[in-house]
Design a protein that fits this description.
Helices cover 24% and strands 31% of the residues. It contains eight helices and 22 strands. The protein has an eight-stranded antiparallel sheet. It has a seven-stranded mixed sheet with strand order 13-12-19-20-5-21-22, sandwiched between helices. The longest helix is centred in the C-terminal third of the chain and has 19 residues. The chain is globular, with a radius of gyration of 23 Å. The N and C termini lie far apart (47 Å).
């Protein structure tokens, strides 16, 4: 699990910024923690404050490691910084071991990499040269400046049977990225969690079990035909099956494309959420509140926190109802605000030491934690 992320000169984060996942002294919602670490972070703030940029370092790392696609490094650099290089540092905890990975890149190339386990250096890269310290020292001088040396070492050596690093990579490969607005779902282990492909492979059983356990008034089926009350939806032989909603009290099945935006969003992301909770890894969700009712958002967050063990949720939302001590701990919530030429900054709610009985939503809306927009209507 991730213990700490440090970013500098990354998109709108000009100055060094730290995301700390070590739990503080709060004695509430222990189900939201795993040992000394938190099971995730929520980022809130006004539009264009930098919320998405706070979770993108994780997606960038996963894309660089597991996706065969070119990365435009210039898109990740701070446009109003004089620094030429972007720096990312990730610190993971695997049982009693600490894994630290540092990455620096310019607009066009990777500059530096370092990987260590318990302060023991494993790989080191500077420009086009890399060194591997597993057993005997190995030096390579033809390292592609557009690709991670870490990726090359893993796929060519599998870390020579190093169990700790092997399990770390297995954990990262289980990660999932979701953008509910664009309906993008990215996995890193080769399995597709697009809802149609998921249901072709697994059916609707687990989804319907979730609906039943949480008292939804509908179930879904995956079929070529639905018919009731003289109305039928039938697909041609060459067409794939469709997802239909079956609501209590209605005698007709409704195709997913005719359902509300909220129900479409839920069905699209639910397979990914169920898989993430079951197998662990990083679950990164942008635009979490796209079309979902407040109570549904709360249910999904509670479900992840209660049922996951090694899953960590990093998500962005505009829904202030999520700012509750009954749902998230104060050390799990960051407000994000843009401060002009100095870029975005993070404010951790727990730094203000709110009491467990205080209303975090009201405190946020009153400006105590920062990251609250000040539009003209508030000043009239």
């Amino acid at each position: 699990m991730i213990k700490k992320i440090t970013i500098k000169n990354f998109k709108c984060f000009k100055n060094e910024t730290v995301l700390d996942l070590k739990k503080t002294n709060y004695k509430l919602l222990e189900q939201n923690t795993c040992g000394k670490l938190l099971k995730g972070l929520l980022f809130v703030g006004e539009n264009a404050s930098g919320k998405t940029s706070a979770i993108l370092p994780l997606k960038l790392l996963l894309d660089l490691l597991f996706k065969d696609q070119e990365v435009e490094f210039v898109l990740y650099q701070c446009l109003f910084s004089k620094d030429k290089n972007t720096e990312l540092r990730f610190e993971f905890e695997l049982e009693t071991h600490t894994i630290s990975y540092f990455l620096s890149f310019s607009k066009t190339a990777i500059i530096e990499e370092r990987l260590s386990v318990d302060d023991q250096l494993i790989i080191e890269r500077l420009g086009g040269s890399g060194k591997l310290f597993l057993g005997s020292e190995t030096t390579l001088h033809d390292v592609d400046k557009s690709l991670l040396f870490l990726k090359r070492v893993y796929f060519s050596t599998k870390f020579e049977g190093n169990e700790i690093l092997g399990r770390w990579f297995d954990y990262l490969k289980k990660s999932i990225y979701i953008n509910t607005y664009s309906k993008q779902i990215t996995t890193y282990d080769g399995e597709s969690l697009i809802v149609r492909k998921y249901m072709e492979a697994h059916g609707a059983e687990k989804l319907n079990e979730f609906f039943k356990n949480h008292h939804f008034n509908y179930s879904i089926q995956y079929a070529k035909m639905a018919k009731a009350q003289g109305i039928s939806f039938t697909l041609e032989e060459e067409e794939r099956k469709m997802i239909f909603f079956e609501r209590e009290g209605l005698k007709i099945s409704i195709p997913l494309f005719m359902e509300s935006l909220g129900n479409q969003t839920l069905i699209n992301i639910l397979p990914a959420i169920l898989c993430a909770v079951e197998r662990g890894g990083l679950l990164i969700i942008d635009e979490f509140s796209s079309g979902l009712h407040n109570k549904l958002e709360e249910l999904l967050v509670k479900y992840i926190m209660k049922n996951s063990t090694t899953t960590q949720l990093f998500f962005v939302s505009h829904s202030t109802n999520l700012l509750s001590n009954s749902l998230l701990r104060p050390d799990q919530i960051f407000s994000v605000e843009m401060t002009g030429n100095e870029g975005s900054r993070l404010n951790r709610f727990s730094d203000e030491q709110p009491r467990a009985a205080q209303n975090l939503e009201k405190m946020y809306l009153s400006g105590i934690f920062g990251g609250i927009p000040e539009y003209g209507t508030d000043k009239e």
